[in-house]
Amino acid sequence: MRAPAPTPPTSRSGGTAGALTGFRSTVRYDLPASLVVFLVAVPLSLGIAVASDAPLTAGLIAAAVGGIVAGALGGSPLQVSGPAAGLTVIVADLVNRFGWGVTCAITVAAGLLQILFGCTRVGRAALAISPAVVHGMLAGIGVTIVLGQLHVVLGGEQQDDALANVLALPGQVLSAHGPATMLGLAVIAVLLAWPRLPDAVPGWVRGIPAPLLAVVALTVVAALSALPVDRVEVGGSVLDAIALPVLPTSDLGGVVVGVFTVAIIASIESLLSAVAVERMRPGTSTNLDRELVGQGAGNTLSGLLGGLPITGVIVRSSTNAAAGARTRASAILHGVWIVVFSIALLGLVQQIPMAVLAGLLVHIGAKLVNVGHMRELHRHGEFPVYVVTILGVVFVDLLTGVLVGLGLALLMVLRRVVWASIEVQAPRADETGPWRKGETWHVVVEGALCFLSVPRLSRRLARIPEGADVVVDLVTDYLDHAAFDHLSEWEARHRLAGGTVRVDEVGTMGLVARRESTAGGPGDRRPGPVPRFLAPWSVWQSEHDAADGAGRGHGRPDDADPVLTGLREYHRRAAGLVAPYLSDLTDGQAPHAWFLTCSDSRVVPNVITSSGPGDLFTVRNVGNLAPLGTAGDDSVGATVEYALDVLHVPTLVVCGHSGCGAMQAVVRESGGDGPLGRWLSGAAESRSRWTARHPVGEHAAAAGASDVDQLAMVNVAVQLDRLARHPGVAKAVEEGRVRLVGLFLDIASARMSVLDGDRFVPASTDRIGAGASATKPEPATTAFAAGSAGLT
């Protein structure tokens, strides 16, 4: 038997070098970052334990387990986990109802449920929760913390619920006194002022974590001044506080609800924090399902050891990323430092005044109410969900607030889906004075028009007088049977009364479309939603005729002119949308490409390139020819020179198309002796190169293409050759300032192809070679023009 080959020395040395590099990176980046996060985590963990009515040691246990276990097993390398302000209200309620031992058991069960979530790959599903509900929940928790801890800051005691805290707060403010109040307000002042220090302050000073500075400085002041204030009572060492959870013996339904509440809220907060950290450090890969497993393992162990529930915490995670952490080693080391601190230096914790931690909690709670989130939600129309969620969390309980917020979010989505905006525009804005014959009323319907909107639609239409000319703008993407019947019946009644109705379908599913589809007419041929700006006049302007029933008219002689009808449509719907872009281009243009294409009306450059105002410097002529240097015709040459010398465009494009009438005339040599014939003589070079290897059978790569389309493709390559020979273009190409691109539009399929080397390839492919944007295209285009062109 042959012995296994030994590992090459290079592999061992490479592995050693890699390990050494990783160790150096950890020492250089992760170790300092872990110390910064540790200094931030200790006071926050103690404060959250106080707000949760839990033992202070439970906050330190959770912080250590969150750092070590969740940091090692989680799917977000830079996320730091620990006790979070978002769970304080839930935990406090569980402690008051079931006691601390049962709360630890709930934490264990919630952790196991999170592991199940991760194993079943539901990590992304948690992100389907409306951000308005999540932000509202956190803001509600923040308001609850502030209302309770303000009483402690002012020298009193917090009440049993939020409403009682609100009612008692004025009296507490009037009676505020004593050193506790000064300490609490001083902490808040330090936390607010420290991030705003001027740049003149040395960087190492500004880099001191504000929570650590506030807690340490005010604790020292209280100790040196021997202030008579309540201080933290740890009640033994962390090791003594470790105890197994207690199984519940009653109210099992409440326990189950608590388990699901902790698991879901902790999972959502952790996933949102992980996504936020990933955005802070681009290139960081996050596995959300693995993150759930890591969080679940952390909660399971934290509950078994007597710790608080943990989540990914955005404050610590953002601090970790900002401090320069590179790997998960930073989060793990921060947990190790907490263990060392909890065992060796716990006596120092007992010197911290309770008012100092209360001031820290007030600041934490206030930061959970994010004004930036409010503005964003207001822009998206979701602010009511945010407000309702806050009120539910603050004045009822967290679960009720979240459920009410989710319910309102679903109702608002349902309303957007099935609710239509219906507006009747009278000939005069104030609808005053007698209505005169010939004046047109406009009815604008936007959204999904279904049976729920029929009563409002009926009331709006009843305002239109009999005999009036009416234009109904249906900007709809859904029209159900009830709305279709009502509109059709009203239209028929209005016509019988002597009025006219024109249905203008701007959306994808309107009255005429439904009528034609029902009758098996043209509506059946529609492939799907098509915006009006992509549809030709013959489609949407003919719908006006179908809706009128009696052809165009309405007393306006220009109704029969599609150009004027199109202009009116532009001013009604598109001018306002395009105006901001054109306004930005008032002082000049900077197009991205010079675009030469055929005059054929079926070729629309801005449609096939998905471009807008200011993108293309377009040149059109019969056959997309570039007769550069031809005596008596400098039209194309002038545009090329202007594009290069004045506009400095980086790309020159020649675009041909199938079924080209100019190429048909060239194939048949039927241009005549007039202007058209003289112009098409500019395609003689294309014809000669194409006929050099005729018949088609010799064009193996062009199988399936007609003679006209073969010539059109060869013509694109020839015109690119002509451009490349132009002195100005040749110099720009040589200097790398310009590239030449050849395109071909197959009208029957609406598909684009790009000249890649010596053949056209689909523009949709991701594997287009350098020939598609060559800076020196002569060899490729010459080979193409010689006869090896084709569509693939």
Automatic annotation (TrEMBL):
Its main location: membrane. Gene3D superfamilies: Carbonic anhydrase. Keywords: Lyase, Membrane, Transmembrane, Transmembrane helix, Zinc. It comes from the Bacteria. The keyword Secreted does not apply. It is an enzyme of class 4 (lyase). SMART domains: Pro_CA. It is found in: Membrane. Its EC number is 4.2.1.1. It is a multi-pass membrane protein. InterPro entries: Carbonic_anhydrase (IPR001765), Carbonic_anhydrase_CS (IPR015892), Carbonic_anhydrase_sf (IPR036874), SLC26A/SulP_dom (IPR011547), SLC26A/SulP_fam (IPR001902). Residues 29-388 form the SLC26A/SulP transporter domain. It catalyses: hydrogencarbonate + H(+) = CO2 + H2O. The chain crosses the membrane at residues 31-51, 58-78, 98-120, 132-154, 174-195, 207-227, 255-277, 336-365, 385-414. SUPFAM superfamilies: beta-carbonic anhydrase, cab. Belongs to the beta-class carbonic anhydrase family. Catalyzes the reversible hydration of carbon dioxide to form bicarbonate. This is carbonic anhydrase. The lineage of its organism: Bacteria, Bacillati, Actinomycetota, Actinomycetes, Pseudonocardiales.
